[in-house]
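Whiteboard transcription, Tuesday session. T.W. wrote the C-alpha cells on the left side:
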C-alpha cells in the first residue's frame, strides 16, 4: 500500500485473468432464444450444450448483452441475462456483461437513448444511467452472477445515447455519461463479490485511436480494457494493420486490449431466405469461405492480436443458427454462414480449434 492509504480505502483487487492471461470466447447472447426456437447444437452427431462445448474446447469467457427495456423481444433483459450468466458460470467460464444503454441495438452507426430517458437533460440522464447500472449489477451479485468484466456502452463510436452517427460528438455530454457508467461499476465493485474490469468499446480499428484521444482529453480515463470490433466488411484496415493499431494503443494507454467482436463466414451458402450479413464482401485474401478458411482466419487473427500485445479474442454470436423463428429481418438467421455450427445439422465446425484445446 502507498503511504497514507489505509486498508479501508484500498480498492478491491480486480478478478484474476484466465490461466495463461488470454481471454478466448464468444458472445452467446442468442443461445437461449435459439434453443427456444428449436435449435439443437451437435458435436460428433450428439446434442451438446454450446456453453459446455466452448469451455471444453478452450474457451474461458462468455459475453452477454443487456438492453434497458426492449419491449420488442423477451430476450437480453435481466432475466435472460441471468440465465446466460448462470450457464457460463456452470460451464466454468468468466463473463463480460455488455450494457448497450438502449432499448435496442446500439452500435457504431447509432446510439439510441432509452425511451424512459429521452426527455431528460444530460445531468438527469447521467443519474439515470448510474442508477440503472447500480441496480443491475447488485441484482446479479445477490444471485452469485457478478460479471468479471463490464462494458460501459457498446460500440460507442458516436455519442452515447446520442442517436445516429451523423453529427460530431459533444464530448462534454459524452464524458458525463460515460463517466457516470464507469463510476457506477466502480462503486458496485467496492463491495460486490467481484470487482469487475471496465471495458470501453469502439467498432473498427481505424476509429479507435481518434476516439480514445478525444476521450482522454475530455476526462474519460478510468477504464481497464479497450475493446475493438473488427469486421473486414466494415473496416478499411487489414489484419496486419489491426495488429499495428493494437501495438500503438499498448504504447499509449495503460489498458489491456481485446478484440471483443469479430466473425468470419465458413460458407457463402444459406440455410434460409433471410439475407446473410457477411457475404463475399467480408472475405480477406487467403481465407476462403470454407470451414478450414474460417478456422485459419480465426487462428491467424488471434495470433496477430497476441503478437502485438492484445490479450483476447471474442467472437460475435457463433450460435445464431437458422431456425423457424422470425426476427425483424425475416425467418431464420442473418448469421448462420458465420456460426460455429454447420447449416444442415448444427454440427460443430473446425473453428472451435482456434480456442486452443484441439
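and on the right, the sequence the group agreed on:
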Amino acid at each position: 500500500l502507498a503511504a497514507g492509504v489505509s486498508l479501508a480505502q484500498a480498492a478491491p483487487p480486480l478478478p484474476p485473468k484466465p490461466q495463461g492471461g488470454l481471454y478466448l470466447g464468444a458472445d452467446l447472447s442468442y443461445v437461449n432464444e435459439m434453443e427456444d426456437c428449436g435449435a439443437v447444437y451437435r458435436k460428433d452427431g450428439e446434442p451438446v450444450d454450446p456453453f459446455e462445448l466452448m469451455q471444453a474446447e478452450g474457451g474461458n469467457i462468455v459475453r452477454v448483452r443487456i438492453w434497458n427495456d426492449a419491449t420488442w423481444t423477451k430476450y437480453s433483459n435481466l432475466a435472460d441475462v441471468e440465465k446466460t450468466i448462470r450457464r457460463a458460470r456452470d460451464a466454468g467460464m468468466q463473463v463480460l456483461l455488455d450494457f448497450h444503454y438502449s432499448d435496442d441495438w446500439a452500435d457504431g452507426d447509432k446510439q439510441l437513448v432509452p425511451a424512459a430517458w429521452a426527455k431528460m437533460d444530460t445531468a438527469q440522464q447521467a443519474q439515470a444511467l448510474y442508477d440503472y447500472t447500480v441496480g443491475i449489477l447488485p441484482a446479479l451479485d445477490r444471485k452469485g452472477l457478478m460479471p468479471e468484466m463490464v462494458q460501459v456502452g457498446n460500440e460507442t463510436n458516436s455519442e452515447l445515447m446520442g442517436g445516429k452517427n451523423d453529427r460530431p460528438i459533444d464530448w462534454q455530454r459524452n464524458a458525463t455519461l460515460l463517466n457516470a457508467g464507469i463510476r457506477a461499476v466502480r462503486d458496485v465493485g467496492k463491495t460486490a463479490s467481484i470487482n469487475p474490469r471496465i471495458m470501453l468499446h469502439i467498432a473498427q480499428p481505424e476509429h479507435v485511436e481518434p476516439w480514445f484521444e478525444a476521450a482522454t482529453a475530455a476526462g474519460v480515463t478510468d477504464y481497464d480494457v479497450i475493446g475493438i470490433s473488427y469486421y473486414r466488411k466494415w473496416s478499411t484496415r487489414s489484419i496486419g494493420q489491426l495488429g499495428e493499431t493494437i501495438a500503438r494503443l499498448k504504447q499509449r494507454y495503460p489498458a489491456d486490449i481485446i478484440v471483443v467482436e469479430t466473425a468470419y463466414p465458413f460458407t457463402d451458402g444459406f440455410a434460409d431466405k433471410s439475407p446473410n450479413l457477411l457475404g463475399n464482401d467480408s472475405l480477406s485474401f487467403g481465407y476462403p469461405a470454407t470451414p478450414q478458411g474460417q478456422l485459419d482466419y480465426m487462428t491467424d487473427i488471434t495470433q496477430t492480436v497476441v503478437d502485438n500485445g492484445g490479450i483476447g479474442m471474442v467472437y460475435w454470436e457463433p450460435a445464431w443458427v437458422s431456425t423457424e423463428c422470425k426476427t425483424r429481418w425475416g425467418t431464420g438467421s442473418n448469421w448462420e454462414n458465420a456460426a460455429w455450427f454447420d447449416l444442415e445439422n448444427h454440427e460443430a465446425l473446425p473453428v472451435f480449434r482456434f480456442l486452443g484445446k484441439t
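Someone added at the bottom: The first strand starts at residue 23 and ends at 27.
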